[in-house]
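Why run this: before we spend reagent on co-expression, it is cheaper to look at a predicted model of the complex and decide which construct boundaries make sense. The entries below are exactly what would go into the expression plan.
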Amino acid sequence: MGANILLPHTFRQLGWIILVPAAILGMMVLFDNFSLDILDSRMITIYKSDSVPLISPKSQGHWFQIIDVNFTQTIIGLLNIFALLFIAFSKEKEEDEFIRKVRLDALVMATYVNYGFLIICFVFFYNLDFLMVMIFNMFTTLIFFIIFFRYMIYKSQKTVVNEE
Amino acid sequence: MKNNLKVERAIKDITQDELAKVIGVSRQAINSIEAAKYVPSTVLALKLSAFFGKAVNEIFFLDEDD
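The model came back. Tokens follow.
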């Protein structure tokens, strides 16, 4: 992973500034049905099914239909995604090939762990409960990656300090 | 891969931190190379070789596992 496809180092701080309120609002959306009426609007969808049951070959629906929506969860979801991307993929202060190797290792680890959880949830959650799992899954790969990467960087720094 | 970076560093009397700054990498990179936890790229190996004024294969050696 070349350093040139990473974001500038300052994006990490920006990411945290966005993430703290966005994560709190996100929890309020998920567990408290938080919604702002001023965000009611019309929006074009790619596909809108007529019935509640999730997509199946038999379900009826329409392509590119304009519907009434509330943007609260969309905006809060996007803020969380951007914040996590900023934190995850901003350059380190001292970016070098060793850091890039650690980043790649952390990304592979995070993908494995995330799919581990997803496989378990895929087997043990059904219908709308699984939709809830998928909502969390929008964010978990990045969260696991951030945790693993920061821990591996922290561990390598600690080794350096011990050597001295 | 094995290396005698630590020995070369001792001969030049330079710390990991100082070496990292001269070469332009993080301290963790130098530390991990010395601990044989990280195999540097050819570019980094050549930079270290130029700094110590020794051939790359005088600093880095193949292991039985390589």
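The mean pLDDT of chain A is 91. The beta strands of chain A are 40-44, 47-49, 61-63, 66-70. Bring this page to Monday's planning discussion.
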